[in-house]
Amino acid sequence: MPVQHRTERGSVRTIPALLVTIGLAASLTGCAASGAGSAPSACPAPGAASAAVTATGAFGEEPKVSVPSGLTTSGTQVSVLRSGDGRQIEEGTPTLVEYTLVDGATGKVAQTSGYSGQTAPITAGAANYGALGSALECAHVGDRLAVALPKSELSGAATVPGSSSKAEDAVIAVMDVKQAFDARATGTPQLAGDGMPAVVLAPSGAPGITIPSWSAPEDDALHLLRKGSGAELTAEDSAVIKYTAVSWAGSNGESSVIGSSWTDGSGAQAIPLAKGQVIDGVRNAVVGHRVGDQVLAIVHQQDGTTAYVIDVLGKMPA
Description:
By secondary structure, the chain is mainly β. Helices cover about 10% and strands about 35% of the residues.
């Protein structure tokens, strides 16, 4: 993945790494998919299993979760335990949550997010987050959700939530939806840059990059594609971004997409902006820019020249 950074103690943690032990990163979907940044055609529905869950305690703090002994479910279910009045989560929306996972068979807590405010965003509907990401679609910031899903779906079985009629032991995820970011850069479009690659946007906001026939600039270069008005990012921040990276034409005259968080299932990423935590060309394309900006960066790396289009969607809470 072109946008790489180190993970150190105290840094932002990623959801997939935390959830891989019980398979919540499996490619599962709970809603019919539409374009990123749009409302899903169907929202996750409640059911008897999710409705049987209770969770007490303050929002944003680790709750005490109670489930009936031997809880089972035949598909993914989502109940709203506490209704928020914040923005609605749409497909493609990066969302900050705190969560507690409970084994429905035993009622014991299997895992939590840590409730430190430092868990990386989940992008609603992104494949890497499976049923967890799908469960967020149609939720609102401020909601506390109870998600019930069969263990077989968590293990990566080739099933679609709701497609099985057989009741199975459930896993419960209680999620507090704390914050949401824009699904795409929302700044004002700017004039194209001379000598720079052409960028066109899909309806979802995903960029397509056309590399010109001439050689890349000798030095790294930046051009602002959209000018936002949000908070300015500093070297002390961790930025929430989406990106697409395309190689400049090599000796064979061809360029290719070498990475895109829009299409690889990962969705938005949180990257630390301290020196040495992310490659300099990407860091320079974000530090000093504002939330809502979209930046075209030409970056020279050891393995060649890369054109990045980076949407700056937000900054992580301190």
